[in-house]
Design goal:
Elements lengths: L1 E11 L6 H10 L16 H4 L4 H14 L7 E4 L5 H12 L6 H5 L5 H10 L5 E4 L5 H14 L5 E7 L17 E19 L11 H11 L3 E6 L2 E7 L2
Helix pairs in contact: 1-8
Amino acid sequence: MIQLNIDQWSAWAPGLHTAADWQQWDRETLLPRALQQPDIAFLPAMQRRRLSPLARMAFAVAWPLAEGRASMPLIFVSRHGETPRSLDLLRELAADQPLSPTQFSLSVHNAVIGLWSILRQDSSEMSAIAGERDGLEHGVLEAAALLAEGAPEVLLIIAEESPPELYSPWIDDVPFSHAVALRLAPGDQWQLRLEDNGTSLANPRWPNALSLVRGLLDHSSVIQHPWKKRLWTWQRNH
């Protein structure tokens, strides 16, 4: 069991930019249909052009939580990562075309945290995790370890981009592109427990990060995220 505070959170999806947007989504549980890119006008144009849609989403949700604050450790979680960019590279290989070194370097799983470190000039400890459906909770465990070691705050980003149509038979856990950022701090506001999923609860309708957003909006006292043999239980203490 771990305890921590969620000091602030931010989320983005196409057409869902504000807390009011997310509250409407929470009430109606509709899939966003707008084809949009997040607004990252806080970055110079030259820097924006280097960012993939996944990186843009991550920066859009995390930057406001870090702006004006001291450097802090960062954990980036994505199950599928830069799948569209990697597919483009594979297609170029299949066509015997030379690969772009820039595109290749930006396709790796830790590219987002590398760009974050460069653009924010932040040399704090940073990790990139490729988890399963419960990557959110594995990211929180990593954050809790950093907080226990003395970090006053940790920034956690969970981001997934809608996969290319080619991968649709295998990727069924990204209903729409989305990103969620949490600024975590020591405290006892939330308690997270890992138990055995002995009752074989069905998986939530939404990815765990979006399920947590719904719980934050609804002020839920308990949120459960089952996955395989694991059952993660979030409990709000106050």
